[in-house]
Fold this protein.
Amino acid sequence: MDQATQADLIRVAHLLADAARPVTLSHFRTSGLVADNKAKAHFDPVTIADRAAEQVMRDVLARERPDDAIFGEEFGHTDGTSGLTWVLDPIDGTRGYISGTPTWGVLIAVGDSNGPVYGIIDQPYIGERFAGGFGQASVTGPMGTARLATRQSRTLDQAILLSTFPEIGTKAEMAAFQAVSERVRLTRYGMDCYGYALLAAGQVDLVIEAGLNAYDVQAPIAVIVAAGGIVTDWQGGAAHDGGRILAAANADVHAAALSVLQMHDMGES
């Protein structure tokens, strides 16, 4: 991919985040916010903010990159001819959003069949934007702009682990997760996409989750990899289609956590 194309993708990704910010903030922590349930077996909320934020991002893409495909959580697939696809999650962490916590975010990624090449994790309420791809990774927020870099190697018993568990995952997946959790120094829950941003920022060592979709992970993958980290599935393979996710700050802690996960039965139950 030539530098002009790379620059344009970066430019448009930030336009999308700029467009989604005011839409999400206009409904956040408002008394009249209503959440519909998209699932039958469990609570999977969606709000007017989710749909409106994705629509404004689609409007930007229709104007700026009309030949690219789109895959969004709320409105599905739109075909393109360029070979590139924008993967959008207008509010990742809607449970947190309707609860008033600032752990949700707008996820934007662009890539091809091999996975994302650039991504943004945007937290509008805090005003933080984590971006990564094409050899660069940075965060812009209340403290200014800084380079993103994941933590250097440390032993598993010294690691900090984040997750959205136990909301997501089967009993067998929870057992495998707990096996890792029992070996680390600290585990914190309910982080949604903000956990991946903190990993890219060098604050934590691991994020482990399951039951995710492509729109949940492609932006975090791009940001974390650009910051020096690793993201795979629980078998050590590609993770950009979602599923069971192991994100790690470096190869050593990734290998240690992966070994524990693979020692446990991760079949559906």
About this structure: The first strand starts at residue 35 and ends at 37.
